[in-house]
Amino acid sequence: MSASAAPPPDNARPPRPGLRERKKLKTRVAIREATYRLIDEQGYETTTIEQIAAAAEVSPSTVFRYFPTKEDIVLTDGFAPVMEAAVRARPAGEPPLEAVRCALRQAVGTILADQPREFARRGKLMLEIPAVRARMTETMAESSLPLSRAVAERTGREEGDLEVLVFTASVLAALREVTIYWAEHGQKDDLAVLIDDALDTLEGGLTL
């Protein structure tokens, strides 16, 4: 390493997760990998929590502690905090929809880069399994909270402001429909382009 490329000081590096957090993450990953493996082998409906627990070498109660339902194992992806952080990092004064648009591209890009197979499987299961699609709708309000916080902060509004809630709910609903549309069409379309089109519709409405 050259003298001009000195490593960053320790206080500039993100803190390393503690042992407990690393163990939790390892358990979550093991449960999700076991779930997808079993679904690939025998289908979604016939895969049980007991089978998932055995494959992940944990107890059924541990599975439920990390994921309240089988659908949550498929749907939980860490997207909400990534999206919140991306919105907060956008330049001050940028219009809310543009900030969310750029942040959404970044967050989806991160998920696709880190979990490409899981993202594709999730879209397929949302399309094929009504319970997965219904659970995503049920949890959308909870998923929107981090985004609502970031949008409220940027706009100087309260987190519970009606317009903030409508705005963030609309964005996440658009993302849900884009994901389903993408899956319906064989996941061949450029997801970033589909997201842009969906947000253009939110911004300008339907045109004749």
UniProtKB/TrEMBL annotation:
Return the SUPFAM superfamilies for the record: Homeodomain-like
Q: Write down the superkingdom of origin.
A: Bacteria
- Per the record, DNA-binding region residues lie at 48-67
- Domain HTH tetR-type, which positions? 25-85
Supply the PROSITE patterns for this chain: HTH_TETR_2
* UniProt feature, compositional bias: Pro residues: 1-17
What GO molecular function annotations does the UniProt record carry, in alphabetical order? Answer: DNA-binding transcription factor activity; transcription cis-regulatory region binding
- Print the keywords alphabetically: DNA-binding, Transcription, Transcription regulation
Per its record, how is this protein called by name?
TetR family transcriptional regulator
**Originating species:** Streptomyces niveus
